[in-house]
Amino acid sequence: MSPTTETTTQTTLGIGGAAESTDMVLNIGPQHPSTHGVLRLRLVLDGERIQHAEPVIGYMHRGAEKLFEARDYRQIVMLANRHDWLSAFSNELGVVLAVERMLGMEVPERAVWTRTLLAELNRVLNHLMFLGSYPLELGGITPVFHAFREREELQNVMEEISGGRMHYMFNRVGGLKEDLPAGWTSRAREAVASVRSRMDVYDRLVLGNEIFRGRTRGVGVLSPEAAHAYGVSGPIARASGVDFDLRRDEPYLAYAELQDTLKVITRQEGDCLARFECLLEQTHNALDLADACLDRIAELPQGPINQRLPKVLKAPEGHTYAWTENPLGINGYYLVSKGEKTPYRLKLRSASYNNIQALAELLPGQLVADMVAILGSLFFVVGDIDK
């Protein structure tokens, strides 16, 4: 042996059966407390370290896209309402926007502003669920009780106008089902103010908790390049520095007139903590946007809230694409019509479907103990993945 050659001896003690150095394959789910529903994760482990991760989906598949082809343009609103059950109003909105674009239909101004208001209230409802459930997954039970209290206040005003607590069915092609009840805007304003007054609890109770910060800071870092590659969108992408929001960059509804109030919240760290911070700040901004919409609705003259439609509604032959900034990210609707009363094809691009793919990038190299923190920080709904 030459004098320049160095030798290194490594000794490993107490590994037991792992001496064979075989990888372990661990299935998390499809029924598991950490998976937000029937999602399955197939993990390949080397000790406590994840080597490979594969999300396995399809356990909740309802075939909604195929069912669209057998329902007319009024009925498909009900099907599109349900895949992301925390964002029902926003789901309806994307479908009717696509049909209205195909028809070349102008919606009354009162409907435009009311839709914008309800979309932002729905955004708050969605985000509050994750603001409460994410700390719960990391062992903090208190925030979820606060989240459900705030959700109840907003659910009450949403239920008053639509009759539904989760699946509102309030959008219609050409506008909304009916005008707002007398005094509803005042009650909505009170609910928004009440929720805003208690939002600091998440800053103090969650972000101010050193255990929460220790479990999330620097964990599950998603690079902006990976976010682009996987088509990640919404607060998860913005937490990685992807400065994109359809409400600002391709305004729809009344967002072009709300640019002074709208804030696109971004972070550069791309970790679990950054994703939670983006979600929290976006909730604050959604409450501000709701107030701005209520101010504008109060100034509008009385008028129609929908268009009169023919008894049989048929879209002209052709195709169009509409997309919206849903609470969880970008939803896209590709509508193809053959001139009949049912869509020839309606392809749904849901936010969670793309976002969850990033797990294959995020989990390898991480500890099993950090898996739940990373999984929960992607803020997905399983129905939105499977459609």
Automatic annotation (TrEMBL):
It is found in: Cell membrane. It catalyses: a quinone + NADH + 5 H(+)(in) = a quinol + NAD(+) + 4 H(+)(out). NDH-1 is composed of 14 different subunits. Subunits NuoB, C, D, E, F, and G constitute the peripheral sector of the complex. It is a peripheral membrane protein. Belongs to the complex I 49 kDa subunit family. It holds the Pfam family Complex1_49kDa. This is NADH-quinone oxidoreductase subunit D. Its EC number is 7.1.1.-. Keywords: Cell membrane, Membrane, NAD, Quinone, Translocase, Transport. InterPro entries: NADH_Q_OxRdtase_suD (IPR001135), NADH_UbQ_OxRdtase_49kDa_CS (IPR014029), NDH1_su_D/H (IPR022885), NiFe-Hase_large (IPR029014). Residues 138-311, 313-387 form the NADH-quinone oxidoreductase subunit D domain. NDH-1 shuttles electrons from NADH, via FMN and iron-sulfur (Fe-S) centers, to quinones in the respiratory chain. The immediate electron acceptor for the enzyme in this species is believed to be a menaquinone. Couples the redox reaction to proton translocation (for every two electrons transferred, four hydrogen ions are translocated across the cytoplasmic membrane), and thus conserves the redox energy in a proton gradient. It is an enzyme of class 7 (translocase). It comes from Streptomyces huasconensis.
